[in-house]
Amino acid sequence: MARITLDHIRHAYGLRPSNPNDYALKEVHHEWTDGGAYALLGPSGCGKTTLLNIISGLVQPSEGRILFDGRDVTHLPTEARNIAQVFQFPVVYDTMTVFDNLAFPLRNRGVAEAEVKRRVTDILEMTGLSDRAGRKARGLTADQKQKISLGRGLVRSDVNAILFDEPLTVIDPHMKWVLRSQLKRLHRQSGFTMVYVTHDQTEALTFADKVVVMYDGEIVQIGTPAELFERPSHTFVGYFIGSPGMNVMAAAIEGSRAVIGSEAIELGFAPKIPAGAKSELGIRPEFLRLSREGMAVTVDKVEDIGRQKIVRATFSGRPIAVIVKEDGEIPAEPRLSFDPAGINIYADSWRVSGEAR
Ligand code: ATP
């Protein structure tokens, strides 16, 4: 298991990059803890796979270094990095049995047969493939084959890290849930450093201790699921995480008040907005309240989604989403109030610290 240091890494696929937009990966400078479970989360094209491939050695970064436990591995090929990888589509040997497929990475490294049997039996159980151990992989479904790929990634005990690139894409929804929980448990038991690429927030939030949110070639926040929810560092994190995402509204900051259209909201602190920066107020639908007191609001639509209702409304001329708990009431002529604990202020899309309030 290793600590992974990403030391001022940048990557451009084209030659001679001349401006920041030429980089598929803008500067990444972070240290990931030994034994951590990280998810790289972001929309298509934001650079997740590029970063994962830099860690695995499939891509050499244009600039910067990558270190495992302080050792520079930037120029080492994948085979010399001692990592396990699980890709989006299954990679299995069709003519081998399920057992032999799983045993392959161990036998290849000369692991004693008794240990091979012990570890493969554990993995067969974990993936629900025990009853197919002696069958050739050829006849299996795509979903079962992907479980073999996952199992092969998990079977070794001596790897620096296990890298997963959207590994559950071909797995059916119920099994997805099962495997995700098993991966999380396995991570706790084994202490492997795991890096998991996905564009699915549920997958990222359930699997990872730390979610690395990427947007347009940049890491915009690394945080626990609670941090991403409560204090999104960037408006993109606010939109992307949560369902519906955070409400973000243009707001003029006047001392300790945010003015949205004709309404003023008391913040309890005075955010410092750099001159000329675009200022916005962000609040998640969970921190808005409809009652008989507060500011004017018009309800446009109520979506009942079982445990809660999503109210689509118009506030000061802007669309806004409010979450009302299952047993919560929506008054006939509701007014809107903001829970100050849920307010975040942004300058040019980045959160302005307001911890001192
Ligand atoms: P996805 O979820 O679609 O795989 P991603 O977040 O993993 O997306 P990357 O595949 O890392 O994103 O791509 C980041 C950017 O780099 C994209 O603009 C992509 O078009 C570009 N890119 C990726 N691979 C190459 C390549 N081999 N040559 C040139 N450009 C590339």
Task: Explain what this protein looks like in three dimensions.
This protein is of the alpha+beta class and 357 residues long. The protein folds into two domains: 232 residues, Rossmann fold; 107 residues, Nucleic acid-binding proteins (OB fold (Dihydrolipoamide Acetyltransferase, E2P), Beta Barrel). The chain contains eight helices and 23 strands. Strands 6-7-8-3-9-10 form a six-stranded mixed beta sheet, sandwiched between helices. α2 packs parallel to α4. The longest helix has 18 residues. It is globular and about 75 Å long. The protein starts with a strand and ends in a 5-residue tail after the last strand.
Give short descriptive properties of this protein.
357 residues; alpha+beta; Rossmann fold; 2 domains; six-stranded mixed beta sheet; four-stranded antiparallel beta sheet; 24% helix; globular; binds adenosine-5'-triphosphate
| Oligomeric grouping of the chains | single chain
Superfamily (CATH H level) name of the largest domain: P-loop containing nucleotide triphosphate hydrolases
Largest sheet: 6 strands, mixed
What is the number of beta strands? 23
Highest-level CATH class of the largest domain:
Alpha Beta
What is the structural class?
alpha+beta
Write the CATH architecture name of the largest domain.
Answer: 3-Layer(aba) Sandwich
Low-confidence runs: none
Using the coordinates shown, work out and report the CATH topology of the largest domain: Rossmann fold
Distance separating the two termini: 41 Å
Bound molecules: adenosine-5'-triphosphate
Rg over CA atoms: 24 Å
Strand order of the largest sheet: 6-7-8-3-9-10
Proportion in β-strands: 25-35%
